[in-house]
Amino acid sequence: MTGIRAKVCRRKRDNPYMKPLSMLLPLVLMAFGAAAAVPADRVYQAPMEQASWILANNGVLQCSLSQEIPLLGKAVFYRDSGRPLRLRIDAWQNYPRGLAARLLSRSANWKSQQKTALLAKLKTTGGGVGMIRAGAESSRRAWYELQQGFQPAFEFIDTTDGDHHVSIRLSTVRFRDSEQAFNECVEKLFPYNFEDVKRARVYFGFDEEFPPPGEEERALKKLLAYIKVDPSVKVVRVVGHADDKGSDCYNDNLSKRRAQYVYDWLLLSGVDPKMLRMGWEGERQPLVKGHSEKARAKNRRVEVWLGRE
Known about the structure:
Elements: E1 19-20, H1 21-32, E2 42-44, E3 54-57, E4 62-69, E5 73-80, E6 86-91, E7 100-106, E8 115-123, E9 128-134, H2 136-147, E10 151-158, E11 164-169, H3 175-187, H4 194-197, E12 199-203, H5 215-227, E13 235-240, H6 248-268, E14 276-280, H7 293-299, E15 301-307
Parallel strand pairs: 2-11, 13-14
Antiparallel strand pairs: 1-8, 3-4, 4-5, 5-6, 6-9, 7-8, 7-10, 10-11, 12-15, 13-15
């Protein structure tokens, strides 16, 4: 990705998803009840003189841009390697789980004409990290709203000690100062995520202990590259398998030889031997059940797993 800056343009009065508050009010009432008809009685927002956006990065695996919200916690835009932009609220206090919440875009407080737009309907998850999490599309829209000078806001009714209309608002102050640095960080992210590469399979021909030429490179290239950039990966498990042709004893030995080949290949490719674990299952754990040639071809394999133990 070359950055997440959306096209910057002046907001037009007839923008299809920015609506005056009077048009949005019936939708808010349906979600929150009559309490939503009055202004929020608990507004959490960084004062202008304190508002700032802090960039943090975890090597090439994650970039984040956060804003401290006094008395509540912080709002965090983050981008993991191989994943789209996301937005979450981290709260110090606990809220009931499953409260109906809305992600809105509000005009800045100092603007004479106030507008509000609904970006997403969400649910609270309780307290702590990710008390509210926005999806990829609504996170992208919230970022765009900040670019345009609008304030994304998470709003819900807190039922802990009565019905209180809570509004958690993100300030635009100093956002532009940090936006470019965040985009530069995103451009350096690794292209794959741990979930994408944590398991790989090397396939073998019938009764073969060596894979076809280039098969191990095809299967393990991304996994090997990821190991080098993620220090949290502590274990690489190598497990050999066979199809159901032949005796149990023969298939045990065949799956062991297959596992040994891949184990040695990983060593030669630079994997720390302290990380490697090897095992074999013979024909006991078929990937695909059945006795067809197609099923057997899928079961003649070595599986390589990454672990963070």
